[in-house]
Design goal:
heterodimer, A: mainly alpha, 68% helix, flat, B: alpha+beta, 10 helices, elongated, binds protoporphyrin IX containing FE
Chain lengths: 339, 524
């Protein structure tokens, strides 16, 4: 295949993945809409409400009464849940094709993250892939509509505003440390994003519980109990934090040392990566500190995600001192000597 | 949840008003080493790092900093007093991380001792009432209690629990290494900081622009650098006595595709000697491939053009010759530079202007620009200044700009600036008998960065160790499990309970799984 063919394959795959995410979202929305008509599983205990793979807490009538209509509805609901999950899988696979196509379209072939568009493509891929991979293990069914809506919108932003044609990497980016560094940064970003979503829902759930007690309704009623959300959030962060440490405190400095002669330059991008790291360390502490666990820890997790995204979006656009030049066209190598 | 891991001595019941000085100190120490203080200091550190990413930093980009200072004359003195141009060495930033380190050490030392003592501890006795624990399960079975307990023992042993028989119950515990991992992590943070500080204090970083060619060379002494930033405890004795010259420099210019005009594959062919009388060696210096000589690293970080411009004065004497470094200002290597001839007669001559590797003319702007970085049709275009260039009074000035305060610009008869445009090999005669200017040929330069960063391996070892410790701390789950089996009527009542001490595990799942294991083997 020619480079141009790879490039158009990539573009088509990204469009197809977007469509599939949309269909998956639709399936889950139908699932949740028809769940509204059903009573929340009695007690909606942490485990009961998230147990069913591919489905969300389903109870068949107030006292387990098996009226036919209820059972049918339950079956249909579960089917849409599973359908949504399967279509998400498919979307992730197609998304991967889009990503690989980007790399194959470049001459010489390379990893597909040389600019904002590619970084966003890879980031959303990791968010979606982690979600499907952890779906059973962490029982993430309740997260489906939120994750899909998130991935879909970010992907749309990428295609509409960030798109740039395939181009070779600048010299400084041409290093295998780039591969390792960026892979780990993207993976951590994906995990932190899912963790942030969970922490946000924790806050929503805890608030609604405080306000309405057990008489909640709608989506929030079917969310797992706050303790379960807190635990899922912790596990996502506990996965993300070492990966982030590896990305910004090990491979980043090694690469910086090779490319720019000193391993830590207090470059704005590095500063914000450090800030993110410190905030997440604070989150991990907060979870074990009396008076901070729960609400405050969840807020710290959201602050962490905010610093993470600010670093990715804000610094690229607002800071001109950064030597990390994903946005716009980078000078080949740092040309103007500083004096 | 975490009280079990806290090493703080229990609060003594001090009566009010009885705070002796020693107790006060102890109280302060306890505050500093509390987890809450660490948390707040961490957040402060994050907050304090922000200004340095917004305000240009002296140590990061000094040119940008001085430009910013020129643009903000009112704010500059205030910012200067607050150390906002070098946040990361400012007193307040240092205060935060030094406090954090004190807190950290004060926290891990007692914890380490405590951990050491606890290392051989036996699992604690089973609580009297297991069903009081938040995660528990119970079932009855016709088997005798001894059989159940024996099975529980073998199941738990397989899961590598440390066990203790305790009457009709078994106490089991595992995950001791979690605390070790946590201690290693915190200790490594200190190690990283030590390594980092060594680099900052004893190291240096410098840059030099060196012309390509065997005629030009560099030897590693401070006065040979164009810019030199030593750490505060740096001593020049530790500089390695190497020297090098750039034999050849090559670039691949992309001529097709979307980034046509972009340069890749820079390679600087270095001839170097590690010591004064060492053998001559060679190395292809490329981006991302530095040369290490001893503990010093040499990097290629930039390149550009140096047109060789010769000025003959009114008497026909050569008053200036040789390559002049022009600094690139754009992707296509449009570059700026000055040529000064303070010894010219009848008056000093200064040229200031631009260099275009491949010149083109834009009808739109009415001026020249550079089409490509590759030198296909190089040209310099400069304005001419005469008078006093201010180079005799010993005030140091940049070699990239002219002091034009006491000069006049040559103009044509119609008042427009007199501009000399020279292609390679051309000569023009200046008006009024000022002499001639020739653009003889084109040379190139490389910007070489050189740094010595002691402690970098310590810092690297520290972070790697920190990561290992972190993995232990986050993924080893310290757990206590109790199984009690006792006669109950004509069957046996089995109770299982578990406690997760990390606050992250799904303990209910552990209990379920254990019960399932006990019951599964029940049937077999
Ligand atoms: C440089 C500053 C520090 C950093 C980056 C840091 C980072 C961390 C991290 C990442 C964890 C793991 C959390 C977990 O296991 O869930 C942790 C745990 C812990 N840290 Fe720190 N820490 C710092 C300073 C301190 C200080 C000063 C103290 C002393 C009060 C402290 C006490 C603890 C304790 C007791 C734990 C165990 C929490 C647990 O078992 O879950 N840390 N720290």
């Amino acid at each position: 295949m020619t480079d141009a063919a790879w490039e158009s394959l990539s573009n088509q795959a990204v469009a197809a993945a977007g469509l599939l995410y949309f269909l998956a979202l639709l399936a889950h929305l139908i699932e949740w809409a028809s769940l509204r008509k059903m009573p929340v599983a009695s007690g909606s205990s942490a485990r009961a409400s998230v147990d069913v793979p591919g489905g969300v807490a389903v109870a068949t009538g107030p006292d387990g009464a098996d009226d036919v209509a209820g059972e049918q509805r339950a079956r249909r609901t579960a089917m849409f849940g599973r359908l949504g999950y399967l279509v998400t899988w498919l979307a992730v696979a197609v998304h991967l094709v889009g990503l690989v196509g980007r790399g194959m379209a470049a001459d010489p072939n390379r990893v597909p993250w040389g600019n904002m568009y590619e970084f966003t493509l890879a980031g959303t891929f990791v968010v979606a892939a982690l979600y499907v991979a952890l779906y059973r293990r962490l029982r993430l069914a309740w997260m489906a509509p939120i994750v899909l809506a998130f991935v879909l919108s970010v992907l749309m932003v990428a295609v509409i505003w960030l798109y740039s044609p395939v181009a070779p990497l600048t010299e400084a980016l041409d290093s295998y440390w780039l591969v390792i560094h960026v892979v780990s940064a993207i993976v951590a970003t994906g995990a932190f994003t899912l963790g942030g979503i969970t922490s946000a829902l924790y806050l929503v759930k805890a608030r609604s519980l405080a306000k309405h007690g057990p008489r909640q309704s709608g989506y929030v009623a079917r969310l797992p109990q706050p303790e379960a959300l807190d635990r899922v959030s912790y596990r996502l962060h506990a996965f993300g934090f070492p990966v982030w440490t590896f990305a910004v405190l090990i491979t980043g400095p090694i690469w910086a040392h090779q490319a720019w002669s000193s391993y830590w330059n207090w470059d704005p991008k590095e500063v914000w990566a450090f800030i993110t790291w410190v905030v997440y360390a604070a989150y991990l502490h907060a979870r074990t500190t009396a008076g901070w666990k729960g609400r405050n820890a969840a807020i710290l997790a959201l602050v962490g995600v905010a610093t993470l995204w600010f670093n990715f979006i804000g610094i690229n656009y607002f800071s001109s001192t950064s030597q990390h030049s994903y946005a716009g066209s980078a000078p080949a190598i740092h040309v103007a000597p500083e004096r | 949840m975490n009280t079990a891991l806290s090493t703080r001595p229990p609060e003594d019941d001090r009566r009010p008003g009885e705070l002796t000085f020693r107790e006060l100190l102890r109280w302060i120490w306890r505050q500093i080493t509390s987890m809450r203080t660490a948390l707040i200091l961490l957040l402060l550190l994050a907050l304090a790092a922000i200004p340095g990413s917004v305000i240009p930093q002296q140590g990061v980009d000094s040119l940008k900093t001085s430009n910013w200072q020129d643009d903000h004359p009112k704010l500059t003195p205030i910012y200067e007093r607050l150390g906002l141009f070098s946040v990361y060495d400012s007193a307040w930033f240092s205060a935060i991380y030094i406090l954090l380190m004190i807190s950290l050490v004060g926290c891990i030392v007692p914890r380490t001792l405590h951990y050491w003592r606890g290392l051989r501890a036996r699992p604690p006795k089973a609580p009297r009432n297991l069903t009081r624990l938040p995660d528990h399960a119970a079932y009855t079975t016709p088997e005798p209690p001894e059989a159940v307990l024996e099975r529980a023992r073998s199941t738990l042993r397989r899961r590598r629990y440390r066990m203790e028989a305790d009457g009709d119950a078994i106490s089991a515990e595992r995950g001791y290494l979690r605390e070790a991992g946590n201690l290693v992590f915190h200790l490594s943070v200190v190690v990283v900081l030590v390594g980092f500080a060594m680099g900052g204090l004893f190291g240096y970083k410098g840059g030099v622009i060196l012309l390509v060619g065997d005629d030009y060379g560099f030897s590693n002494t401070p006065d040979q650098y164009d810019e030199f930033n030593p750490g505060s405890l740096f001593s020049a004795d530790r500089m390695e006595p190497f020297s090098f010259s750039i034999d050849d420099f090559s670039v691949d210019w992309l001529t097709t595709g979307r980034r046509a005009g972009m340069a890749r594959g820079f390679a600087s062919h270095l001839d170097y000697q590690e010591t004064l009388d060492g053998p001559e060696q060679s190395y292809d210096l490329r981006v991302n491939h530095p040369l290490s000589i001893g503990s010093t690293d040499v990097f290629l970080i930039g390149h550009g053009y140096a047109p060789v411009i010769t000025i003959r004065d009114g008497d026909g004497d050569i008053v200036k010759s040789g390559p002049t470094i022009f600094l690139p200002t754009s992707q296509s290597f449009q570059s700026i530079g000055v040529v000064a001839a303070p010894d010219a007669e009848p008056t000093q001559v200064g040229l200031e202007g631009e260099f275009y590797p491949t010149v083109a003319f834009s009808q739109q702007t009415g001026s020249y620009y550079s089409l490509l970085g590759k030198p296909l049709d190089p040209m310099v275009s400069m304005l001419v200044y005469t008078g006093d260039l201010g180079m005799d009074d010993g005030v140091p000035q940049s070699v990239y700009s002219l002091d034009k305060s006491r000069t006049t610009m040559l103009t044509k008869k119609d008042g427009t600036p007199y501009r000399i445009d020279l292609r390679e090999g051309e000569t023009v005669k200046l008006p009024d008998g000022l002499g001639t200017v020739s653009f003889e040929r084109l040379e190139r330069w490389n910007k070489i960065q050189i740094s010595q960063t002691p402690g970098k391996w310590i810092a690297l070892a520290g972070v790697v160790l920190a990561l290992v410790g972190l993995l232990g701390s986050l993924f080893i789950r310290p757990r206590r499990v109790w199984v009690r089996a006792r006669r109950d009527g004509d069957g046996t009542l089995v109770e299982v309970a578990a406690l997760d001490r990390s606050g992250g595990g799904d303990v209910a799942a552990v209990v379920d799984e254990l019960v399932e294991a006990l019951q599964r083997e029940d049937q077999s």
